[in-house]
Every structure is written in C-alpha cells, then in structure tokens.
Amino acid sequence: MESIYQHPFRVRYCDVTAGGTLRLSRLLAEWQETGMVQMEQFGQGNDVTLRRGLLWIISRQNLHITRLPALDEEVILRTWPGEMRHGLFPRYYELEAADGTLLAQAVSQWSLLHCDSRTIELRPQDCGVYLPPAVTGRELPRSRSLRAVDTDHSGTFTVPYSFLDLNGHMNNARYLDLAQDVLPRQTLPLRDLQIEYHHEILDGETLTWGWTQQPLENGTRFYFQGAIADQPCFRLQMDYGE
C-alpha cells in the first residue's frame, strides 16, 4: 500500500472567503478528510476503530502558507503518516498548485480516544492499529508547545450543534472559524498557524476566550485561547505578514 496519498481538489464557491481565496477551515477540513481516506485504505478508518471503542482525534496542528488558492483553482492535496511514538501519530500534508508550486504545508498530531472514558490510548499497537510511515524530506517541523498568555480582549462562546463532528465534540477546523470571527480582520496574508487542542468542547458547552497581539518585524502575531472554568481547551497562534 502506498504511504503517500494525493488527490485533486477544485476550490468551489462554497469553499472561499469574501476575498475569493480558500477558507482556512475548509483547507483543514479537506486535509483531515484526505487523511481519513488514507487511513481507511490502511484498514484503520473510523469504521474499524469504532468497533474497538476508539475514535481518531487531532490534538495539534502546525501550518505554513505561501499562498492560498483562489476560486475555481485546481490544486493537489497530499498526505502521509510519520512514525508513531508514545501513542501519537504525526501526519504530514502538502497543498500544491497545478504547476507544481508548493502552496502550503502542515503537520498534525493524531491520537486514539476511548469512546467511553474519553482517555487517550497510549499503546495503539496493542489494539491492532498501525500506519506505515513515510519519509519525504519535506516534512514540516513541529513547533514548540504554546504557553498560556495574558490577554486583553475576552468573551464567551457556546458550541452549537452545527460545530460538532462524528466524535461528538467541536471539530478541529471550527476553531479557525471562531478565531477569524473574533480576531480583527487583517490586510496582510496569514503565513503561519499553530493550534493545540487540550480538552474537547462538547455540544452546548460555553467557553471563555481571550486574545492579544504583538508586533512582528513585518507583520502581526495573534494569540487566541479558550477555557471552560479552569480547564484550558485550546491555544492558537496566528502570524500575519509579507
């Protein structure tokens, strides 16, 4: 079985922002779908893991963007798994233009969650889960963990039913929709994104979010984080610049 999977994708009207480029949450959702298709080919899709009482979840994502594709542009989505360590499955992604130009790269960290206890399975090999890793030399390195920061803007958000996925919690891509709804609109393009998911957020739960920003040499960095009571739920960093 080939360890690198790719397929073509045309940016549709429903996929773009008001600016006419691919919506960031749609890119993350499409990459996630691409990863799930490959895991199904490996015999480790949700239909298999659910029978074992397990769910695939994403706990961390890093993304670097050179350019986001525009409406009606044909691109190639590519993904491959890295080597599993300590119960964590790294997965790498690329977005390529029709002429072969690399538009974006990402790395995400996948884990298996027990449906009943909502705890992480630390020895997935004991559950018969294995993904053959690949090494291309183009893997985006993982960044350091994000620290909690002091924020100077805050608010609350209640998770609607439409934000849930098969796992019954707020889908990873929806955090980007929330961030871009809350944070000030930027004229500079987004270049780098890092998200950490610390605790799942369920249907109808209300979290308190906060954000702050700091200048970069040629742009702006935003920190955005959320918690329920004293439980951190996510941390996010977005760098805009030339």
Task: Describe the structure concisely.
By secondary structure, the chain is mainly beta. The chain has 3 helices and 10 strands, in the order E-H-H-E-E-E-E-E-H-E-E-E-E. It folds into 2 domains: 5-127, Thiol Ester Dehydrase, Chain A, CATH 3.10.129.10; 153-241, Roll (Thiol Ester Dehydrase, Chain A), CATH 3.10.129.
Can you describe what's shown?
With 242 residues, this protein is mainly beta. It has two domains: 5-127, Hotdog Thioesterase (Thiol Ester Dehydrase, Chain A); 153-241, Thiol Ester Dehydrase, Chain A. Helices cover 14% and strands 39% of the residues. The protein has three helices and ten strands. It starts with a strand and ends with a strand.
Category by helix and strand content: mainly beta
Biggest β-sheet, characterized?
Answer: 10 strands, antiparallel
Chain oligomer state: single chain
Distance between the termini: 40 Å
Shape: globular
Stretches where pLDDT falls below 50 for ≥5 residues?
none
Q: Specify the number of helices.
A: 3
